[in-house]
Please model this.
Amino acid sequence: MSESLNPYQSPEAPIEPEGIKNGVLTGQMLGYLKESSPWLRFIGIIGYISFGIICLTAVISFFAVIAAGGIDIPGLGFLSGVMGVVVLLVYGLTAVIIFFPAHFTFKFGAYLNAYFNSYAANDLETAFKNNKSLWLFYGILMIIYLAVIALSIIIGIISIFTIL
Model:
């Protein structure tokens, strides 16, 4: 039997997920987002694991330095007695710098995945909110980084002129 069209059948329109208005997101764009979702979650999980390892290393290093009676570094004066705290602060700052990108990346991927399961517009909106937060964090971190570089250059120039 040949397949015949039913003239009385309702026309079928392509299903467009909720939240896509005026063709802003094409099917190709949605496909790219869907393919990236597992990778975003994977990178987020690796970031969480790295955060945990750095926190554990911070605590172990802190107690190792305390148990060793501090680090005796000539020329540091009173700082050699508080090196355990300095080590803890450096690792803590590193952990914070790793945690937030991992968190935002994981959430971006998780909400993208939730969107493709439910096609609820608020899931897609929350996914992109986390993506915005990720890049906002990186932008602020870059501003701090550039300020530290500029300050280092200024201190370097001043110290060269004081030596001469």
